[in-house]
Every structure is written in C-alpha cells, then in structure tokens.
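Reviewers of the previous submission asked for a worked example of the structure-prediction workflow described in the proposal, so we include one complete record here. The input consisted solely of the amino acid sequence. No template or homolog information was supplied to the procedure at any stage.
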Amino acid sequence: MSPDGTRPQVCGVVLLRADGGALLQLRDNKPDINDPGMWVFPGGHCEPGETKESCAAREFLEETSYQCRSLKHLVSLSAGALGYRTDFLLDFYWDRFDGVQTYVCGEGQDLRFHTLEESADLPMPAYLRQVWDEALRAAAIGTCRSHKID
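From that input alone, the workflow returned the following structure tokens.
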C-alpha cells in the first residue's frame, strides 16, 4: 500500500504487429526487481495523479522510444493474485504497431518483436501469454489460443 492507502499502479502495453507478434522487453537480471531476466511487455509505475492510460503511454515511450497513437484498455489484474510478493494493480493496454516508427531498448537487456510460436521457450511470467491472447482477440488477429486469466 502507498502512504495514502491505495495500491501502487503499474501499466504495460502490448504492441502488436499484423502477424500477431508483440514487442517484448527482456528485463534486467537483478534479484530485487519483479520478473528478473524474463520477457515482459514494456511498462512501469504510475506517478501520483497520472491516469493509467497516460502512465502506459509515458512508460512505453521511455522504455522503447515508440509513441503509441491509439491505446485501448485490455485487462486489469491484481499482482498479488498473480503470485507477486507485493500487491499492486496491473493494467494492460494494447495498440497496433504502425510499421513506421523505430523503437530502441531504453531499459532492460533487449527489446524485440516475438510471435507466440517464437516465444514458446522464452522465460516469461505465466500470465503474459494470456494477456497476449486477450490483445490478439481485441485486435481481431486470428492467431490467438484460448486462455483464461485467473
């Protein structure tokens, strides 16, 4: 809990290519961070007074140098229910990759697009593929599998 009694808020972005590939970030391998050495969707913590959508856009821009143009809310999750040691609210947004802008790894070890098939052996949080599937459904990209987010 934060000093004002609310749970911290974290937002991430699923940036999708037309083939269903998503831009993933390889987190630093530091034991004091969540998901060390794992592939995740770029994102981060909301600042006081910041809206979730603004947070998602800002964090994504800071970490990738890519400007999302049309963020759409995807899903809200409780980090505690997902098994994290601290509880925070986790919101994901999605957008389509425009194929024009460049992106760079501004945080973490690596940043690249992966397809679901390519990601099968990558270390990532268990819920990540479920969120990815939700984004594919929302974008009406037909390569999604059936998953339920608990």
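Residues 52-64 form the longest helix (13 residues). We consider this example representative of the routine output the project will generate in years two and three.
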